[in-house]
Amino acid sequence: MKTSLESISSIKKRLLIEIDSTTVDEKLNTAYGDLNKNVKIPGFRTGKIPRKILERKFGTQVADDLVKELINESFPQALNEVNLLPLGTPLLEKEVLKQGEIFKYSAVMEVQPEVEVKDYLGIEVEKEILSITDEDVSKQMEQIQQSHGTLETIEPQRSIQKDDFILLDFEGFENGKAIEGHQAKNMTLQVGSNQFHPQFETALINLNKGDETNINVSYDEKHPNQQLAGKTVEYKVKIHDIEEMVLPEMDETFFNKLGDDIKSIDDFKDKVNESLVANEEKRIQDHLQQRLLNKIADTVEIELPQTLVEAEIENALQSIKQNFYRNGSTIESAGLNEDIMRKELRPASEMRVKGMIVLRAIDKEAAIAINDDDLARGYEDMAVATGQDTETLKKYHEARNYDEAFKQTLLDEKTLSYLVEHAKVIEKEKAFFINESSSQKENN
């Protein structure tokens, strides 16, 4: 076997493989010999069928099978010879297999780009100052209280007011024609929440239980639902019930539902504050790491493998679909176009792929690795986060070959921590990041 490698670009390669004619002839002779022993053709005894008859009747299938066999045998060896690891499935270009001739094929594939990252230590990066106010704690306490609330019919009955919860049916029409997927039965809507559309929710005010009415809503040209953008929709609406949220008293019964360690309003407040601080610390640290990685990645020019970009887009899209599914909906029923979504997801996906490539280059250059202690600590942290047994988690990952992916995640985290440790971190108030985000949106 002969191999040679052509460079199409920094990330795209063509691997050419030649199988000598002797090997081809041996494979063909063996294949036809085995075929002769097992097939039956009228007029010939098994094992005595002329080769030409077999070639005429089974030649295409024999050649196809041998091509697959030759590629399966030679391709891993060829990759090893040229020290190449393809991303995704290579595109094969094959010649016709013929007796007495060399068999040639090539594989075009994307590979990880060779990246050299310089001056990645000591970079100046902003970090948000942790700030949890009494108002933040109170709001979170209210949200937890509301999550334990119950919806009850308002008695005595009255007209709809802002903040009421309405149980209703609706169906949307454009020019008298029903809009596919834009209807619901027994949907709960809080008036004034802007969960639906401000015009729609405002029009509900002063209606009564049992009312049936039509509501016209004009949608903006830039509305994310392509079915509705720029259109005026007529909604046929029926009000089934008017409800209000009844909140539980913050008493012993309520506290018992929250945990054994919460006995009073002060315990509740302390627990909420502790949770908010932990969540904010993680958010701020994640933001800091991503911000630093983006700054480093911006200094590097990389041709991105589209195999990785497309995979990242697909992952992001599937995550969005799952969120819709968990809420009892789909992107189709929301009027979102999958092709448009893929286009919109591409810039962020490209940035994530670039960051990943840069991060992997840094951990190699800095000789950062995961040791047994890191792995044990990683499983312990996962066990605490999930409330499961450490050894059970470890066995589960090993049985399903998840351990290598887990090690890579730990390595990424270790490398990011290393970069932050050696960065020039400048603390900024939250307003700095809000203003910066607003400026970026305006520039875009």
Produce the secondary structure layout.
Elements: E1 2-7, E2 12-19, H1 21-38, H2 51-82, E3 86-94, E4 103-111, E5 124-128, H3 134-147, E6 150-153, E7 165-174, E8 177-190, H4 198-204, E9 212-218, E10 232-246, H5 252-258, H6 265-297, H7 306-326, H8 338-365, H9 372-386, H10 390-399, H11 403-421, E11 424-428, H12 430-443
Parallel strand pairs: 5-11
Antiparallel strand pairs: 1-2, 2-4, 3-4, 6-10, 7-8, 7-10, 9-10
Précis, in short:
The protein has helices spanning 21-38, 51-82, 134-147, 198-204, 252-258, 265-297, 306-326, 338-365, 372-386, 390-399, 403-421, 430-443, and strands at 2-7, 12-19, 86-94, 103-111, 124-128, 150-153, 165-174, 177-190, 212-218, 232-246, 424-428. Strands 6, 7, 8, 9 and 10 form a five-stranded antiparallel sheet that branches. It has a four-stranded antiparallel sheet with strand order 1-2-4-3, sandwiched between helices. It has three domains: 2-111, Alpha-Beta Plaits (2-Layer Sandwich), CATH 3.30.70.1050; 150-246, Chitinase A, domain 3 (Roll), CATH 3.10.50; 261-443, Orthogonal Bundle (Trigger factor, domain 2).
Please characterize this protein's 3D structure.
This protein is α+β, with helices and mostly antiparallel strands and 444 residues long. It has 3 domains: 2-111, Trigger factor ribosome-binding domain (Alpha-Beta Plaits, 2-Layer Sandwich); 150-246, Chitinase A, domain 3 (Roll); 261-443, Orthogonal Bundle (Trigger factor, domain 2), CATH 1.10.3120. It has 12 helices and 11 strands. Helix 7 (306-326) crosses helix 8.
